[in-house]
Amino acid sequence: MTLRVPYLGQTVMANFKGGDRIRSRAKLVTSDRFIQDALEHDPRYGVLFTCVKKYEDTPAQVAKAAADKAKPRKITKVKTINDALLYFTQLGASVTGENELKDLMEQYNVEFPNLSR
Question: Last residue of a domain, which of 39, 55, 71?
Fold first, then answer.
C-alpha cells in the first residue's frame, strides 16, 4: 500500500509492505524523521495507520537544539533599514515602520551585523 502524504509543501510517498487484509498488517520501517513527522501529522494517523515506535531525541540533541535556538541568526545581506524591513515583510510580518525593527529582530531571533543606521 502506498500513501501520498502532503507535508510542508512536499508530497511524501509512504510505502507500506507486507500484510494482507485478513492475517497481518502492512508495515513501514523508516529512520527518516521527516517521513515519520509527515505520517504523524496526517489526518489518517490513528485511523488508517499508527506508529508502533517513535524516535526519541537524546539529551545531547535536545541541548544542542535549545542552544541553536537561543543564538540569534546573523543575516549579513541586510545593510540598510529598508533591507531589514523588506526582510521581515518577506517573512510575512506586518511592518509599519523602523520603530518596530528591534521588536521584530527579537521576535524572529535575528541580528543584522552589517546594518548601518
Answer: 55
pLDDT digits (tens, 9 = 90+) for 59-108: 676 677 667 667 788 888 889 988 988 888 888 888 888 888 888 888 88
8 Å CB contact between 17 and 26:
yes
pTM recorded for the entire structure: 0.43
Q: Say yes or no: 7 and 51 in one domain.
A: yes
Q: How many CA atoms lie within 13 Å of 48's alpha carbon, on the beta-carbon side?
A: 15
* Domain that includes residue 12, residue range: 2-55
Query: pLDDT tens digits for 62-75?
Result: 677 667 667 788 88
CB-neighbour burial class of residue 16 (10 A; exposed 0-12, middle 13-18, buried 19+): middle
Region of residue 106 (left: phi > 0; alpha: psi -120 to 50; beta: else): alpha
Residue 56: half-sphere exposure toward Cβ, Cα within 13 Å: 4
Sequence-separated (6 or more) residues with CB below 8 Å from residue 65: 57
